[in-house]
Amino acid sequence: MVRRPVAWVTALVLFAEAIGVALLNWFLGVVVDRQDMSLAGLDSDTMAVSSKIGGLVFGLYFVACAVSALLVGVRDRAPGLVGRVLLISAAVVHALLGAFTVGLVGWGAFVFMMVVLGLIVFTLLAYDRREAGPVDAVPPAGGGDGEGLRREDGAGQGAGQGGTVDLGKDAGDGGQGGARPGDGGTAVVPPPAPSAS
Predict the structure, then answer these.
(1) What are the Cα distances from residue 41, in Å, to 29, 48, 170?
(2) Rounded CA separation 74/5 (Å)
(3) Most exposed residue of 10, 13, 166, 190, measured as fewest CB within 10 angstroms of its CB?
(4) Based on the number of CB atoms within 10 Å of its own CB, is 7 exposed (0-12), middle (13-18) or buried (19 or more)?
C-alpha cells in the first residue's frame, strides 16, 4: 500500500520543519539580541527571548505532529483522537502559511507548503475508510441448503400454541412448506396440533 510510505514521508517532512522552525526563530532571537534592536519601544532582550521561546514551542508542536504521522505509518492504522487533532491542526497551519508566504517569500515556499498540506491530508484520508470485515458482512436472506431463517412465533393460531414460521424455504422444495408457483410470498408452516393429555 502507498499510504504507509506517504505517512513516513509526512513524518520526515514534519521533523525537518520542526528543526527548521526552531533554528530560524533561535537565529532571529540571536540577531535581535546582538544588534540591540527595538520595535515600537519593546526591549530587545524581551524580543530575543520571545523569539527563542516561540521557536521551541513551534518546534515541539511540529515534533508532536511528526510523531503522530510516524505512529500512523508504523501501526498502519488511523490515528487516535489526539493524533487526528494534531494532524488536522498542522494541515490548517500549512494552509495559512501557504497563503502568507506567497507575498512574503514567493511561489516556491507556497508550493512547498501545499505539498506538505497534501501529504498530511492524504495521511488522514487514507486511513479514514474502514475496510468491511466478516462482522460487517450481511448474512444471506436464504441459505443454499433450503433451511433458511426460522423464528418462534409466540402468538399461535387458534389453540394459542407457539408455532414456527419458515421464512426462507426454497420455492422448489415441493414439500409441505413449499410455496405455490405464482404466489410471490414465503411459505408458512402450520403450528403443531395440540397433544391430547
Answers:
(1) 17, 14, 90
(2) 10
(3) 190
(4) buried
- pLDDT, one tens digit per residue, over 53-95 is 999 999 999 999 999 999 988 888 888 889 899 999 999 999 9
Say if residues 161 and 191 touch (Cβ distance below 8 Å). Answer: yes
Residue with cell 540591540: 36
Residue with cell 530560524: 24
46 confidence band (pLDDT: 50, 70, 90): confident
Distance CA 159, CA 191 (A): 9
Distance CA 183, CA 174 (A): 14
Q: What are residue 139's phi and psi, to 5 degrees?
A: -70, 150
Instruction: State the cell numbers at 11.
Output: 513524518
Is 176:182 a contact under the CB 8 Å cutoff?
no
The structure's pTM equals 0.59
C-alpha cell belonging to residue 21: 522552525
DSSP letter string over 82-127? HHHHHHHHHHHHHHHHHHHHHHHT-HHHHHHHHHHHHHHHHHHHHT
Which cell numbers hold the place of 90? 498542522
